[in-house]
Amino acid sequence: MTKHQSCLHLVPIFNHLDDSSMQLIAKKIKHQSFKKGDFLFQAGDQTDKLYVVHKGSIKIYRLLANGREQVVKILKTGDFIGETSIFKKDTYHEDYAEILEDSEVCVIEQKDLTQILKDYPEISLKIIEQMSKRLNDSYKQTTQVTTESIGVRLAMYLVDLVDSDSESPTVTLPTSRKNIAYYLGTTPESISRKFKELEEKGLIIQESSSLIKINNLDDLVYYSE
């Protein structure tokens, strides 16, 4: 399997295709490497490409009127962005995409993606599914920021990170606590206090700056409700 095919297998909108289709689409892909601190794109850049994270992580954020960052999403391996270019031409990014660690990204130009969708119309349905999920996640994030306390927001965030049947799982924070604070609509100082409060309540143990052991998942879920 080539690097380009490997990239396609990571993405829900492509991984349902057979190998021969994957090979054809892989020929349209360009592979790019980025260093930490680079930008995949910035606000004002034209949205004329689909980006797939093959390796690494990327912070998507926008600048508020007061100059503070509002983190929209942290892209990880298998995530993609730029799908709006499929449905509307001559649009421009409103957000910034900053590389958080050395990353590899697969890029498909708008014209190539348009042809791919003509050849494989089922991909359009997959893209719509993913866009619907993103809208739901965005609505959920906005609701949390406007209606829930910081402690509850943090608890809900940690619960969402759990991908295990264990009653006491350990989760790895996907980005810095500063970025998590901005994502949850608060300050780094406030999020540090809330981590400490959750630990004092016996809900979590901070094993390191990025590893959080959840003492009892049911208790954390109850706290977040």
Automatic annotation (TrEMBL):
Keywords: DNA-binding, Transcription, Transcription regulation. One of its GO terms (molecular function) is DNA-binding transcription factor activity. Residues 148-218 form the HTH crp-type domain. InterPro entries: cNMP-bd_dom, cNMP-bd_dom_sf, Env_Response_Regulators, HTH_CRP, RmlC-like_jellyroll, WH-like_DNA-bd_sf, WH_DNA-bd_sf. This is Cyclic nucleotide-binding domain-containing protein. Pfam families: cNMP_binding, HTH_Crp_2. GO terms for cellular component: cytosol. Residues 13-134 form the Cyclic nucleotide-binding domain. It comes from Falseniella ignava CCUG 37419. The keyword Transcription applies. PANTHER family: CRP FAMILY TRANSCRIPTIONAL REGULATORY PROTEIN, REGULATORY PROTEIN YEIL. Coiled coil: none annotated. The keyword Transcription applies.
